[in-house]
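REQUEST FORM: STRUCTURE PREDICTION
Request ID: SP-0412
Submitted by: Lab K.M.
Chain count: 1
Length (residues): 71
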Amino acid sequence: MKNACALMENHMEKEALKIISPKVIAKFYAMGLVDTIKAWLLGDDDSMSAEEVYNTYVFLLSHSILDIIDR
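STATUS: Completed
RESULT:
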């Protein structure tokens, strides 16, 4: 069973890598940035400065979600 799971994971990774291009990566990060700015501008919390939003965004980009959850 472990071999089957490993084969499937390897296949899925190869399939994902086929569609990842610089354009796809750029769109992914651009959408994340736009969503972050929209949430900040449309949110009810006026206490966060643009610098705090930026620093939080940079933190999220530079850490994996698993690292953040483990904290």
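NOTES: The mean pLDDT is 83.
Reviewed by: T.R.
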